[in-house]
Amino acid sequence: MTTDGQGSAKERVSRRKVFGLGAAGAATLGAGMVAANTLLDEPPQAHATSTSDPFPFYGEHQAGIVTPAQDRLHFVAFDVTTDKRAELVELLQEWTAAAARLTQGKEAGSYGAVGGAPEAAPDDTGEALGLPASGLTLTVGFGTSLFDDRFGLARHRPAPLTDLPKFPKDQLIPEISGGDLCVQACAHDPQVAVHAIRNLARIGFGKVSVRWSQLGFGRTSSTSRAQSTPRNLMGFKDGTNNLKLEDSGLLRDHLWAAAQDGSPWMAGGAYLVTRKIRMMVETWDRTSLAEQEQIFGRNKGEGAPLGKRAEFDPLDFAAKGPDGEPHIKSDAHVRLAHPSSHADARLLRRGYNFVDGSDGLGRLDAGLFFIAYQRDPRKQFVPVQMGLARNDPLNEYIKHVSSALFACPPGVRDGGDYWGRTLFEG
């Protein structure tokens, strides 16, 4: 093992016997390495050029964070049911091997849905046969509960991975909060995203169980300047001033964890906060346009700051209207969430709309599945959300029902690497 905890690809694969396949796998090490590194039929692209194309799986950072946000989401949180560390590591190795295939439009296992023995269960569920990669990305995170005494990880728990405080007005449901592991599947085709999660859950049978999951549609943030700003279910543009993949300096300072932060195994990773925010859309829909715009601090059509004309016009909190009052009120959402209100705290948002049917009173169970990545939630998400929870008039129309925090490790470097290797072998 090298001093930086990575080692060569050959060393890493030989230590773990080719993704846990034991002596038989070790006997085919050379062939396994070739196969792992030639999953693509052509060289990986830096960016997908259409909604059908794949994104690269290997890299310094996990895909699905700064990757241009896709249209669909299937997010799942798992509880680990095994108490054996070796089985957890083996699962992460198997998941990584499957993810490397799935994200390139291939089936989860080498025999696929129909290529194995008829008397054996297929190693792919088959519902994505014939579908392209559709920009699928799979992103893994480790929850605070994974760092208990089951797997010897307590001493490796990063300081930023601390349970979030209870925010004013939270109405959290424990059954759809937290989790030992998470997988975020984003794609342009919902069937591709669902297929990926279904197959990872199938591979994890006996080692993990699904704690909760969430389907999402209609991204509510832009993570690239090439993307237009989308709208949330309240009809407003969402995430205008989001961090973007082109903001390399800001990403270094506000997104990616670094070795000097205190947990070297997280270098190149990021911390993920999820919040399921139900919107009282029926009440909102009866609110006047003027009040809606005052609550957000932007106009509904263009998304421009009040008093300005265009979406990306700079916010001017000192500007006043003819009546002498500020165009943007002191408790407007855009002011309360602005970095200037929280020591320059910035987030990379990657949320999605959701509609989960209706409740017993005929009201839509709909809202925002909020996703935000950052370098340290204690300095970023927590102060921003605390300010919003205490003062945002939008709270009259929303309620937070689910919450989770995960440490997303750095990317998988090559075919001999796996999700979480820096934690388990570093």
TrEMBL record:
Keyword entries, A-Z: Heme, Iron, Lyase, Metal-binding, Oxidoreductase, Peroxidase, Signal
CC cofactor: heme b
One Pfam family it belongs to: Dyp_perox_C
Tagged with keyword Signal: yes
Domain of life, source organism: Bacteria
EC code(s) of this entry: 1.11.1.-
InterPro entries assigned: Dimeric_a/b-barrel, Dyp_perox_C, Dyp_perox_N, Dyp_peroxidase, EfeB/EfeN, TAT_signal
Family matches, as SUPFAM superfamilies: Dimeric alpha+beta barrel
Residue span(s) of domain Dyp-type peroxidase N-terminal: 62-217
Main localisation: other
Catalytic reactions on record: heme b + 2 H(+) = protoporphyrin IX + Fe(2+)
UniProt-annotated location(s): Cell envelope
Its biological purpose: Involved in the recovery of exogenous heme iron. Extracts iron from heme while preserving the protoporphyrin ring intact.
Listed PANTHER family: DEFERROCHELATASE (PTHR30521:SF4), DEFERROCHELATASE/PEROXIDASE (PTHR30521)
Family: Belongs to the DyP-type peroxidase family.
Protein's recorded name: Deferrochelatase
Record organism: Nonomuraea insulae
